[in-house]
Design brief:
This protein has 171 residues and is an alpha+beta fold. It has one domain. A hairpin with a 6-residue loop joins strand 4 and strand 5. The protein is elongated and about 90 Å long.
């Protein structure tokens, strides 16, 4: 997916471009290609970016540690402000207070918009935090407290024998 030159959007019909998506996204392991539509509209001092896309990813269940497939669907939009950045990035202070109004993404009005990177970010944000393969997942097999296992590691056989002798001696 090619980067979009932002000034070129001003010359597009309705200052909008629509991109059909049907390919893999670099850095995102998916079972199927990402399919959908991306719309980028130039709004003067901002870009209005929206996407509807889906793919299938293979995840690992947090309960039973088995692989399972998950359909990942996104339908989201974002406003990205266009403003000339600070050209002196090397002389910024190590620490500075950031106001809530400053917490937005900015691009240069003469720069490029990277749709593949933006879609990657949106898909990553849509990944489930709690990865469970299904409602009926019982989780990993666990031994209840007080329940003894019949299988003994032969390295512990001497200790198991001593434990048995102590149990018989106390009775």
């Amino acid at each position: 997916m090619e980067a979009i030159y932002i000034p070129k959007l001003l010359k597009a019909p309705d200052q909008t471009t629509e991109i059909s998506i049907n390919n893999s996204i670099s850095g995102l392991d998916t079972l199927t290609p990402v399919k959908g539509t991306l719309i980028v509209r130039h709004g003067g001092n901002f870009l209005d970016v929206s996407v509807e896309a889906e793919t299938i990813v293979t995840l690992i269940c947090d309960r039973c540690v088995q692989n399972y497939n998950h359909r990942l669907k996104i339908a989201t939009s974002e406003l990205i402000w266009l403003e000339a950045g600070n050209p002196d990035l090397e002389n910024l202070p190590l620490e500075r207070e950031v106001l809530l109004e400053e917490l937005s993404e900015n691009l240069s009005p003469t720069g490029y918009f990277e749709p593949q990177t933006w879609i990657y970010e949106q898909l990553s944000l849509a990944m489930p935090i709690r990865q469970v393969c299904g409602e009926s997942c019982v989780g990993a097999t666990q031994v209840a407290a007080g329940e003894e296992t019949t299988q003994v590691d032969n390295r512990w056989a001497s200790l198991a024998s001593l434990k048995e002798q102590l149990k018989n001696h106390n009775n």
